Amino acid sequence: MNQSEKRRKELLESTRALYRDSRIPPAVHPRYGNVYSDLYGEEAPAGSLGLRVVLCCILFAAFVMMDYKDVKIAQVSSQMVTQTIESDSDLAEVWKDL
User: Fold this and answer.
1) pTM higher than 0.70
2) Where would a tag sit more exposed on the chain, N or C end, judged by fewer CB atoms within 10 A?
3) For residue 44, is it left (φ>0), alpha (ψ between -120 and 50) or beta?
4) Is the pLDDT of residue 36 over 80?
5) Is 26 exposed, middle or buried (0-12, 13-18, 19+ CB in 10 A)?
6) How far apart, in whole angstroms, are the C-alpha atoms of residue 54 and residue 52?
7) What pLDDT sits at residue 54?
8) Hey, CA dihedral for 23, 28, 33, 38, is it positive or negative?
9) Three-state secondary structure call for residue 44
10) CA 42 to CA 60: how far, in whole Å?
């Protein structure tokens, strides 16, 4: 390695050290939580996917039960739920109804 190569390498390392921000960890997507904890020793924030999946399964089971046994819950039948889901709705109309 000649002098110019050594000088370039020193300048590169000093520039990297100058602009390195090791105090603030980067924002990390939840799917990379394991990598985040390996690199920074911190636990990534937990998500709510599991809770949402359980809630959706419970609601779906209630809908299937309503449909199978022709049960009305709060004066709502499964046919009304299906019609409401299938209907086109305008956001302005929904906002007025609230």
Assistant:
1) no
2) C
3) beta
4) no
5) exposed
6) 5
7) 95
8) negative
9) coil
10) 37
